[in-house]
Amino acid sequence: MNIFRKLDSSQSVFKNESAFSPDFMPPEILHRENETRELALNLAPIMKGMRAASVVLHGPPGTGKTTLARHVLGQLREATGKAHPVYVNCAEQGYRYSILGALLASLDYAVSRRGRSADELLGYAVEMVKKSGKVPLVVLDDIDMLPANEKNGILYDLLRMRENFGIDCTVIVITNRDDFMASLERRIRSSLLQAAIRFQPYSPAQLRDILKERAKLGLLPGAWDEDALGMCAGFAARNGGDARLAINALWLAGKEADREGGAKVLPAHVEKVRGAAQDLLRAEQEQNLSKEEKLVLAEIRKAGRIQSGTLYSKLELNERSVRNYLARLEELGFVESVQINSKEGNTRIFSARK
Ligand SMILES: Nc1ncnc2c1ncn2[C@@H]1O[C@H](COP(=O)(O)OP(=O)(O)OP(=O)(O)O)[C@@H](O)[C@H]1O
Ligand SMILES: [Mg+2]
Asked: Which domain holds residue 226?
């Protein structure tokens, strides 16, 4: 038999593999009732055409921040025509300029951005928002991906729209950092009202529930063993309570079951893909580093081993910030360091980990 026909006709555990893809929107968000309600309550004034307080959603990777924000935005859109919600992924739009461009595009502004300054774009956006008569609601997801000046710049534009242009703009900021507020300039911190919703890591039982729902959506009935789900949940729970990790592990295990021609995802399949799931996590964490952290890591990788002093002098960044970046890189396991004490003084030597 033709190999491709044979592969094609062989059975698969999947009924809808796209249920495991990163941009899949689950029809139900489990175990986030309080967070959903809190965010909705916060946004409720928009229903009356009024400004809502800006809010920060913070918590570790894979705890449902993006999913929940998109879900609530969708519900708001459905409930009222008074809002103009815009979702911005800061990993894709890395500058104040391009975020303003995305805002303009969402307002159907049809003029080329070429040759225009960010301030001009802001001016057009303000004009268009006024014309629309709607309350703008801007979600800045993964805001940690913006360099500090771009981050402060865009937040200033949006949070000060009321004082500067008489427009009530609401901002939802999504971040991994619990110390996000401290990373902002003081004038911006004071405009960003202190409403914050913290997303906790999922427990093993919660991850199991999420996986069960996902299995029902993506796998054929009866094509998984409950213990296999439990193993994926446990693995993700031990690695930060990250639902993305749990879902990825189940997806990879499903692929492994297919490869072996099995009709069911079994614990043995999960065992086999554990390493690959870990690699995926690593790649994801590296992608999620800020531009500055990536710079520091690249410098250490280039050098192999490098003294802290040499590192500070090579980077055009402030020394205290570099120390913070190094601490985070070490915590995440990207670099390791040893302290050397000598008569000339103490120094730390950094090296990259595989
Ligand atoms: N409560 C939930 N119910 C169902 N699926 C969920 C839930 N929470 C997260 N997920 C799924 O887990 C994955 C990660 O969720 P999400 O992208 O929302 O995390 P995040 O907190 O935004 O992470 P990051 O900080 O890395 O951006 C997605 O595939 C999402 O569908
Ligand atoms: Mg996210």
From this structure: 202-287
CA of 170 to the centre of ligand 2 (A): 19
Task: Match 């190094």 to its residue by tokens.
Answer: 326
Q: Is the pTM of this model over 0.90?
A: no
Judgement on whether residues 185 and 39 belong to the same structural domain of the protein: yes
Longest CA–CA span in the chain (Å) reads 75
* Predicted confidence (pLDDT) per residue in 127-155, tens digit: 999 999 999 999 999 998 888 899 999 99
Report the distance separating Cα 295 and Cα 317, nearest Å.
10
Q: Note whether 172 and 267 are same-domain residues.
A: no
Asked if residue 299 belongs to a domain, the reply is: yes
- Domain containing residue 85: CATH number: 3.40.50.300
Nearest ligand 1 atom to the CA of 206 is 1
Which ligand has the minimum distance to the alpha carbon of residue 141?
Answer: 2
Instruction: Tell me, yes or no, whether 193 and 242 share the same domain.
Output: no
Question: 138 and 71, same structural domain?
Answer: yes
Q: Which atom of ligand 1 is nearest to the CA of 67?
A: 18
Task: Please name the residue ranges forming H helices in the chain.
Answer: 3-9, 33-43, 65-79, 96-106, 118-132, 148-159, 161-165, 186-191, 204-218, 226-238, 243-259, 267-287, 291-303, 308-314, 319-331
From 198, 218, 240, give the residue that closes a domain: 198
Q: How many domains does the chain have?
A: 3
CA of 136 to the centre of ligand 1 (A): 25
Name every residue whose Cβ is closer than 8 Å to that of residue 159 and which is 6 or more positions away in sequence.
Answer: 54, 169, 171, 188, 191, 192
CB 330 within 8 Å of CB 300: no
Alpha carbon of 341 to ligand 2 centroid (Å) = 42
Report which residue type is found at 107. L
**Ligand that lies nearest to the alpha carbon of residue 177, given by its number in the listed order:** 1
**In-domain check, residue 150:** yes
- Over residues 277-303, the pLDDT tens digits come to 888 888 888 988 888 899 999 999 999
Quick one: which ligand is closest to 22's CA?
1
